Amino acid sequence: xxxxxxxxxxxxxxxxxxxxxxxxxxxxxxxxxxxxxxxxxxxxxxxxxxxxxxxxxxxxxxxxxxxxxxxxxxxxxxxxxxxxxxxxxxxxxxxxxxxxxxxxxxxxxxxxxxxxxxxxxxxxxxxxxxxxxxxxxxxxxxxxxxxxxxxxxxxxxxxxxxxxxxxxxxxxxxxxxxxxxxxxxxxxxxxxxxxxxxxxxxxxxxxxxxxxxxxxxxxxxxx
Length: 223
Ligand SMILES: Nc1nc2c(c(=O)[nH]1)N[C@H]1C(S)=C(S)[C@@H](COP(=O)(O)O)O[C@H]1N2
Ligand SMILES: [Mo]
Known about the structure:
Order of helices and strands: HHEEEHEEHEEHEEEE
Number of strands: 11
Helix content: 10-25%
Strand content: 25-35%
Oligomer: single chain
Bound molecules: ligand MTE, molybdenum atom
Largest sheet: 6 strands, mixed
């Protein structure tokens, strides 16, 4: 099944929510114009702190049983992977703490993640010399893109747990990616394929008015 054919994806996506987020992007709302390149503050410009972790997605929260779950890592790599959940859990495990910054202006500090570090994945798959970008594909049809050098940052993690407990379905469980340096739309919930590519491929929100990078410190909110 190709990404476009996920059952009912196009039919079920929340057109209204998408239209409203596209409008927000087009209007440039939330831009303060005060970049904080040196990270002088812990909170990036235009953000406010929350305690509870909000849920944001396209409105489809796929239910994937652990026996059906797969993670493919493929594309421009020497050694592609097709992992079952047990295979994934048997990989070397990492633990990171990072802050979340969502483009809708909430931030949440000190999230504890357990999972497999992106650098562990890189060691296993060995990207080819022509690999420049990493594209995440999810069970709900969502996609998002980052540069390979961003995937290589030491705090990027393919996470199965948050605060010591398995990720709930609404937050992207069984497994999601966490790219802490970028706005949170770059962190794919329900990930099932990590594609290494020799060219950039803008993802779902990147094609709908959101920035291709997503640096919260320089407010790379919209394109
Ligand atoms: N698969 C998938 N991943 C996704 C999304 C989505 O709709 N589908 N939404 C993104 C957006 S816009 C945000 S802000 C975060 C929200 O994650 P949360 O619901 O765990 O807070 O997930 C990101 N990853
Ligand atoms: Mo978002």
